[in-house]
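FOLDING PROBLEM:
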Amino acid sequence: MKLFSCLGIITLSFSYTLLATELVYTPVNPSFGGSPLNGNFLLQKAQAQNAHAEPLSEKTFVDKFQEALERNLINSLTRRIADGEITEGVYDTGEFRVEVSLDTDGTVIVHITRLSSGEVTIIRMPALPGGKP
């Protein structure tokens, strides 16, 4: 009786192995070969799980206006130096002090000082003779 039950178990185990098929991996993510229809779903899931928020920096009107004036001053100064229309002098923007001077050999020297830290940047460039080229 034990022999028949052992043979029955062995026979059943072999029959199940004959019915088994090969496992095939199918990726879900479309970046790795999965269905492109999964892309939107996976993106929404990732965005829903994202706990990071970009910090909002609320600037007042005065801060925005000051930044715009600084950008405008630096832009016009850069444009005049590049065009050869050099105006020597000291320009104070509140955060930076920009000193423009001419050297004896015609080189333009620009000293940019960050007032908060005292950091100084010196830029030397040859001046364009006679204004615009």
